[in-house]
Design brief:
Elements (H helix, E strand, L loop, with lengths): L3 H8 L10 E5 L2 E4 L4 E4 L2 H4 L8 H13 L12 H12 L4 E4 L2 H16 L3 E3 L10 H5 L4 H4 L9 E2 L6 H7 L4 E6 L15 H12 L2 E5 L23 E4 L10 E5 L18 H17 L3 H11 L6 E3 L2 E5 L4 H10 L2 E2 L1 E2 L4 E4 L7 H15 L3
Parallel strand pairs: 3-13, 5-6, 5-7, 7-8, 8-9
Antiparallel strand pairs: 1-2, 2-3, 4-10, 9-10, 11-12, 12-15, 14-15
Helix pairs in contact: 3-10, 4-10, 11-13
Length: 375
């Protein structure tokens, strides 16, 4: 009988580098197929916002599965309007459209910007990551994953992240929108200067271009506010969200400012905003709402515990630079039962469940510091 690894090698396209099989999750912990327990500081890459298999989320999914698993968007979907209302009010923006992932959310944002602005070009930033579909890849900088698929049908320029003069030079009368991460996640939690978001807003306003804020990783309470843009006084035109929105059930969304929306027939999706995803999303929202006041303090525990690394911290988005030693640190931490993530440019990324406790944080930073001492 084939092992699981052998089956995977034979039948699954080799897109991922994988080293172990996770078979169970509970709270901030996961277990591998050998029964070893790990404290998970990756959380499905910022997806499992309420921890693994939160009882309230599991109950909501099961109850909805007994009632209705799928219903076409030809009809009203249970829970869809309620979740849209929550997201609209939390963001201070207008209407919502649901999708199934962050990449789909970015694609929807690009479509909305093109159809409403009447323009066709975009500007993003060096090291920004927005997804792997044809549309979202076109505004993703990383040449290794973008260039093999060019031409992508969308023109995009990439000034340096944080460089407002470079952005101003790149934006012109053909620019439909500027697409950006308020905190760069895939690169390793890069926090821009305080004047960056206000500067983007001013440049977009001057050029009559739209401002698309990619909150796929930074949204849904991860930074201590519902959305990372709320740490500034800036209001984008469109935000994209996914990852933490439904505790691991695939879901994404865009939220646009008042007066900016798709009209009938301009966009659609078979599975978007389905009953199970909305059931999980509504419960997830309520759990995050209760956790939100304590997120910043949890981030400060990481900042204090990892002070030797000069970490970059915004709520429970934590990153620090180790260079070539980053993979070794992740390997040693995994051996010691703590999962961390190696992001781009030799950076470590820590994005644990928002439910993580002070004791779990203190344990984690102890393991990380101990492992670093062995490198």
């Amino acid at each position: 009988m084939s092992t699981y690894k052998e089956l995977d090698a034979k039948y699954y396209m080799p897109c991922f580098g994988r080293s172990m099989e996770i078979v169970k999750g509970e709270g901030c912990n996961v277990w591998d197929d050998n029964g070893k327990k790990y404290l998970d500081l990756v959380a499905g890459i910022a997806v499992c916002s309420t921890g693994h298999c939160h009882p309230q989320v599991v109950d909501a999914i099961c109850r909805q599965a007994h009632e209705l698993i799928h219903c076409s968007n030809l009809y009203y979907i249970p829970g869809q309007a309620e979740l849209a209302e929550k997201l609209s009010k939390a963001s201070g923006m207008g209407k919502v459209f649901f999708g199934n992932s962050g990449a789909e959310a970015i694609d929807a944002a690009l479509k909305l910007a093109k159809v409403r602005s009447g323009r066709k070009n975009f500007v993003s930033f060096n090291h920004d990551f927005h997804g792997r579909t044809i549309g979202s890849l076109a505004v993703t900088h990383k040449p290794q994953i973008r260039e093999p698929f060019e031409p992508l049908g969308i023109h995009c320029d990439f000034p340096d992240y944080g460089d407002l003069e470079g952005l101003k030079a790149a934006v012109n009368k053909d620019t439909a929108a500027v697409v950006f991460e308020p905190i760069q996640g895939e690169t390793g939690i890069i926090i821009p200067p305080e004047d960056f978001l206000p500067g983007i807003r001013d440049i977009c306003d001057d050029a009559r271009a739209l401002m698309i804020c990619d909150e796929v990783q930074s949204g849904m309470g991860r930074t201590g506010k519902w959305f990372a843009f709320q740490h500034s006084k800036v209001q984008p035109d469109i935000i994209s969200i996914a990852k933490g929105i439904a505790s691991g059930v695939p879901m994404g969304a865009i939220i646009a400012r008042e007066g900016l929306e798709f009209t009938k027939g301009e966009h659609g999706s078979t599975f978007a905003g389905g009953p199970i995803a909305c059931a999980a999303g509504n419960v997830t929202f309520g759990i995050i709402e209760q956790l939100l006041p304590g997120i910043a303090a949890k981030g400060e525990l990481f900042r204090k515990g990892l002070a030797a690394f000069n970490p970059r911290v915004r709520g429970l988005m934590v990153g620090f630079t180790l260079g070539e030693a980053a993979p070794k640190l992740a390997e040693l931490c995994m051996e010691k039962g703590v999962l961390i993530n190696v992001a781009g440019d030799g950076n470590i990324r820590i994005v644990p469940p928002l439910t993580i406790s002070a004791d779990e944080i203190n344990y984690a930073v102890g393991v990380i510091n101990e492992a670093a001492g062995q490198i």
